[in-house]
Amino acid sequence: MMLTERVIINIVKRLISGQDYRIEVVALINAEFMQFAVDFFKKVIDAKLTNQSVCEDWYKHVFLDTHLSPDDIAIHSGLNKKTIHNMFNSATRQIVLDASKEHYETLCQLIQNLVDEQSEIDLTLTIKINGVSVDLNMNESLIVINTLAVKRAALRGGAWSTAGKQVEKLLMRTLCSLFQVPHENFTQEHNPESMREVDFYLTKGNKKLRCEVKLMGRGNPESADAIFARESDVFIGDKLSDKNKAQAEQLNVQWVELRAKNGYKRLEKVLEHFGVPFTPFNGDLHVELDRILNGLLLQ
What we know:
Layout: H1 5-16, H2 22-51, H3 58-63, H4 70-77, H5 81-88, H6 93-117, E1 125-129, E2 132-136, H7 138-178, E3 186-187, E4 200-204, E5 207-214, H8 221-229, E6 234-237, H9 242-250, E7 254-257, H10 266-274, H11 285-298
Parallel strand pairs: 5-6, 6-7
Antiparallel strand pairs: 1-2, 3-4, 4-5
Helix pairs in contact: 1-7, 2-7, 4-6, 6-7, 7-11
């Protein structure tokens, strides 16, 4: 799932302004999920009406059709490709098809057992679109509900991952522009193989300073550990615990905590420490961020 340009801009603005950025990602997840749910319900109506007298298991006939994409088949069966890959160390099309078929059969049996055990409960899901409606019995309803739950989880995981990948480099470029760091003193391109894990780096002469960005909260110590293990020179995070900061200082890693009051300004201290040219910023932050981001996204 690709983050929209507007969401990317809003996240960078919120990070540098010391505000929580997560609401932007959550809003995107909600929008994507609701659109999926509406589209899925439309397909359910079409499938149910078309196959109710042709195939007893209309859901399997339509939604696990081998002509669909592996991603769709996995979601429809109640799995996702990442889970399948973790299970089988591979997610080739055939593995996804086999795993989805097996899981769907298991899911159907589990639901049937539940229905038999909870016979006093009767669930009917009615979907009505443009005057056309279908009723799903309890088994069918639970399968559909499970599919929506799996899709929501997949969207959530993809969104947070994408947020990090698409925002981190733009965040660093914006910060460098804010402090007028010369273009020859920072880059995100042509990283040597030994620095393939590095998000960004500042330069001072021939020296390359590894910069790591993590949009993590204080409850993610493993993210910080990975950064320290790669011997980064600069560590920039949304939130940093006291332990993170102490660890960084012990290892001579310069850090910036964006969520702190005027946290972005600590980058001045970092640049000064390494002798990277910059100009202190004292203007209107919101106005300048609008100007910088509009310019960067047009490049």
